[in-house]
Amino acid sequence: MRRKVLRAVAGLVIAPGLLLTACGETRTDSPKATPAAGKSSGGAATTTQADGTVPAGEPDVNGDGKVVIGVMSPGDTKDKGYYQSFVDESRKFADENDWKLTIVDKINPATAVQQARNLCLQRVDLIAIGASELKDALSASTEPQCKGVAWYISGGQGVKQTPAFTQSLDFINESLYAAGYAAGLILKENGGKKAGYITGPDLDFARAVAKAYKAGIRSVVPDAELVENYTGDFNDSGKANEAANAQLSQGVKVIYPYLGGATDSVTRIANKKGVPALTPGTDRCTPEPGGVKYAVSVVFSPGAYFAGALKDFKEGTLRMGVAREWHLGKDPVPTVKLCEPKGDQEAKLAKLIEDIGSGRLNVDDAVAGKR
């Protein structure tokens, strides 16, 4: 969201309508690498490591003298937020290393496999899938036209691991409980009892986000109410704005637009009413000139995790068949930041994050109401 549009990269192709430095460090303790069972099938020759396999010749796995990354996204890669972060990291590496980039966004999950096949036919070295909604695309990894292609997916809560791809995992309860805790600190400060949550389709993961967020809020304000709206579309500003106005009329004192392209539109309305807002994935504590203002940055953007994978890919160490786990309080990302903390709010949030990372707070039990 806060990232400026980067200059075009040579070879960049955008097909609309189709559907941290630290985090790039190689880690042996955390993020945790979880291997898949079995051996790699299909694709390029591989070198077996303790966990997973490295396609021969990384990053130029097809040996044609150039490196091409194909990016697949179900969302709008110009949303200034979650989906754009994934593309921003791709562009950054392409620009710095003279790689080429092909982007296909707004992909309907029903067409994911065919879009992956199309990218394979364009001789890409790595297909990077920005969200697990497009996980079906991975089935193309063993097809003849995709031989020699490395695969990465931002798996979120996880895609069934096979030897053919690598993924990054994060955990809803960790990030969203902490986000709710931060929102609860704000509610306590402003005397509010209602928080708003606006998202797109009414899906299981969206409900899980709401549950963890609500639990975090109530850990600070036990009798707080969470007003939830599911608009059916992450990018439809009209529907999101209608929900925001309705929530504000009901007296919400902090609002969470867990959206894509409609995020800033909701936050702009909240800013006019003086109601604090949270980000859905990116760090926007430093506002752009003339832009919207956020009170809390909830950082779990796929681009942050992808940066680590791209660094490994460049160095020829990106392993297929493993999942890398990213944990709040253990790794640089995910994290939650209060943009303008008051009193001891920052210290309290830091302590919560530390307790989650150390295991002193079992956040899954907290979300389930077992403590």
Describe this structure in words.
The N terminus is likely disordered. The protein is globular and about 60 Å long. It is built from nine helices and 15 strands. The protein has two domains: 181 residues, Response regulator (Rossmann fold, 3-Layer(aba) Sandwich), CATH 3.40.50.2300; 156 residues, Rossmann fold, CATH 3.40.50.2300. It is 32% helix and 18% strand. It is of the alpha/beta class.
Query: What is the first-to-last residue Cα distance?
Result: 36 Å
What share of residues is helical?
25-40%
What does the largest sheet look like?
8 strands, mixed
| CATH architecture classification name of the largest domain | 3-Layer(aba) Sandwich
Structural category: alpha/beta
CA-atom Rg in angstroms: 20 Å
How are strands sequenced across the largest beta sheet? Answer: 1-6-5-7-8-9-14-2
CATH topology category name of the largest domain: Rossmann fold
Instruction: Tell me how many strands there are.
Output: 15
| Global mean pLDDT | 86
Question: What's the order of the H and E elements?
Answer: EEEEEHEHEEEHEHEHEHEHEEHH
CATH superfamily of the largest domain, by name, is: Response regulator
Q: Structurally, how many domains make up the residues? A: 2
CATH class designation of the largest domain? Alpha Beta
User: What are the low-pLDDT stretches, counting only 5+ consecutive residues below 50?
Assistant: 1-30, 37-49
Strand proportion: 15-25%
Tags for this model:
371 residues; alpha/beta; Rossmann fold; eight-stranded mixed beta sheet; 9 helices; 32% helix; disordered N terminus
